[in-house]
Specification:
single chain, 131 residues, mainly alpha
Amino acid sequence: MSFKINISGKRKVFANLLAELHEELYDIYQKRNEETGLTKADIAERLEVHRSLITKKFGGTSNLTLESVAYLAWALDCKPRVELIPLEDLNNNRKTYTEYYLSGSKEDKITRTTSTSSTTTFFNTVNLKRA
């Protein structure tokens, strides 16, 4: 017996965006950890929460809200930025938003978008910059 699970395109896009955000937060954390020795305990203390919550947020086992992203960015000395790319910029590749977003590797998306769009790469939907 086999099962087929249908996941809507919009849900896949949401899941991918969430995964990217978790990855971006953790990458910034690792960079800060290497540069300054910042630990998850330091972040938890700064946010006045338990360290386990920070581990869950960075590990992807806790839902991220805009509020929690802003707080984590603040604790990492970053400014969150969200960028929305018009669909017509993506249509240069003659693919729908969902086809584009779900096709290829991260490197492929960056290369394709950089070569066809004058805007910032689509894959970098969420950027955390130093404050």
